[in-house]
């Protein structure tokens, strides 16, 4: 296998100019979620030219795609995921241009060595991670049913082997009441703003009876226009998060009960909806993480932050993938050890810096070798799946 890893490294080196160019092109052409026409066309065209069978649009998402390469020998199907959406005002402050270039590099390198591999290499183009993540749609539509394992690498200020993320439900409560002259005939009014405020009070009481991992944060986006008109319409939006999907479902039921109570106590009617897609918690596969780690060490990275399953930070649509099939979502450091926060212009710039470029190539090599191990190692893949099944049965 060592020879194969070196051959994959060599392929990535040969692709260097192209990969850095793609990374730059997407950086200089930032597109918001579900509008990534430039990036999705760029990536899928390159893959098509390299012999991948490309489907674009994919799952009714215009900027989603699936590219598949068949080695012509039976074997598993392993996917690498490419994100490419940017943020308003700050462009690629989350470095998704680099996620795309890493995935592209790994997939092209593997395809070049098809004679030494088996099974199928899949690249999934997954739009809109920052908002309505496509992975949620893909997971719901059964995209991962015929894929054995999936991975992606996210840039960061550190080399972190992976962590869990919080499951999240973005809830919207709309309260409908009746206007009146707030001073002239207040007895005729039904105050929608009060319903929203009561909802906050109920939720604040709920906080002391949930586990410490729960996060509930809300805003009132509409609550009337002027004090002398009783508001007949109010909207409150909440992100409700917890470490595990199952527990989150019970908390969300209680949060909705608070909104119902707010509506009942004020005489309002209530409509509940999701204002963005829900994400499941990220459940990184430990065995797969081990393979990734070995390759990073082989490639010379020693300063690795261990897998952190207690981590409680944000949420990602990769969580939904991780509850379907074995998945990893490690980070690669691109700032030379300097703690630069993601979602900043400074971080965006790091993706095209010399240090960022080196990290990109190293990560592409690591992904290619990890995927090669999964494509060729039937026993290994079996163990990875066993780990997944044992954990998912506890959920
Ligand atoms: Zn982000
Ligand atoms: Zn991101």
Task: Report on this structure.
The structure is a single chain. By secondary structure, the chain is of the alpha/beta class. It has eleven helices and twelve strands. It has helices at 2-27, 37-49, 96-112, 134-140, 192-206, 245-266, 286-298, 318-322, 345-350, 354-376, 378-392; strands at residues 53-55, 65-70, 77-82, 120-125, 149-151, 154-156, 167-176, 215-222, 233-242, 269-274, 327-328, 331-333. The strands form three sheets. The protein has a six-stranded mixed sheet. α3 links the parallel β3 and β4. The longest helix has 26 residues, at 2-27. The two termini are 36 Å apart. The mean pLDDT is 97. It binds zinc ion (2 copies). One zinc ion is lined by residues 94, 96, 129, 154.
Protein topology:
Blueprint: H1 2-27, H2 37-49, E1 53-55, E2 65-70, E3 77-82, H3 96-112, E4 120-125, H4 134-140, E5 149-151, E6 154-156, E7 167-176, H5 192-206, E8 215-222, E9 233-242, H6 245-266, E10 269-274, H7 286-298, H8 318-322, E11 327-328, E12 331-333, H9 345-350, H10 354-376, H11 378-392
Parallel strand pairs: 3-4, 3-5, 5-11, 6-12
Antiparallel strand pairs: 1-2, 2-4, 7-9, 7-10, 8-9
Bound molecules: zinc ion (2 copies).
């Amino acid at each position: 296998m060592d020879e194969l890893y070196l051959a994959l490294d060599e392929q990535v080196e040969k692709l260097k100019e192209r990969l850095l160019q793609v990374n730059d092109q997407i950086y200089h052409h930032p597109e918001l979620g579900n509008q990534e026409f430039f990036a999705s066309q760029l990536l899928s065209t390159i893959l098509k030219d390299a012999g991948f069978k490309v489907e674009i649009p994919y799952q009714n998402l215009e900027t989603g795609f699936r590219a598949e390469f068949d080695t012509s020998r039976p074997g598993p199907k392993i996917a690498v995921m490419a994100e490419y959406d940017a943020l308003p005002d700050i462009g690629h402050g989350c470095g998704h241009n680099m996620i795309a270039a890493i995935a592209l590099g790994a997939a092209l390198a593997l395809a070049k060595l098809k004679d030494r591999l088996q099974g199928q290499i899949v690249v999934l183009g997954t739009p809109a991670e920052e908002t309505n993540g496509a992975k949620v749609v893909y997971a719901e539509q059964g995209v991962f049913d015929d894929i054995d394992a999936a991975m992606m690498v996210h840039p960061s200020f550190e080399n972190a082997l992976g962590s869990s993320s919080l499951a999240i439900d973005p809830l919207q409560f709309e309260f409908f009441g009746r206007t009146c002259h707030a001073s002239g005939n207040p007895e005729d009014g039904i105050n929608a703003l009060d319903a929203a405020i009561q909802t906050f009070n109920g939720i604040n009481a709920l906080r002391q009876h949930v586990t410490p991992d729960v996060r509930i944060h809300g805003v009132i986006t509409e609550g009337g226009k002027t004090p002398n008109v009783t508001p007949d319409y109010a909207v409150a939006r909440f992100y409700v998060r917890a470490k595990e999907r199952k527990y989150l479902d019970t908390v969300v039921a209680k949060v909705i009960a608070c909104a119902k109570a707010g509506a009942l106590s004020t005489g309002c009617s209530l409509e509940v909806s999701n204002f963005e897609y829900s994400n499941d918690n990220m459940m990184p596969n430990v065995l797969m993480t081990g393979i990734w780690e070995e390759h990073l060490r082989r490639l010379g990275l020693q300063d690795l932050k261990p897998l952190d399953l207690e981590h409680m930070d944000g949420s990602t649509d990769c969580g939904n993938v991780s509850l379907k099939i074995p998945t990893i979502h490690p980070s690669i450091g691109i700032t030379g050890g300097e703690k630069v926060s993601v979602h900043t212009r400074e971080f965006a710039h790091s993706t095209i810096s010399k240090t960022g470029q080196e990290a990109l190539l190293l990560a592409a090599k690591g992904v290619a070798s990890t995927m090669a191990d999964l494509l060729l190692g039937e026993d290994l893949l079996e163990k990875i799946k066993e780990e997944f099944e044992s954990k998912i049965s506890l959920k």
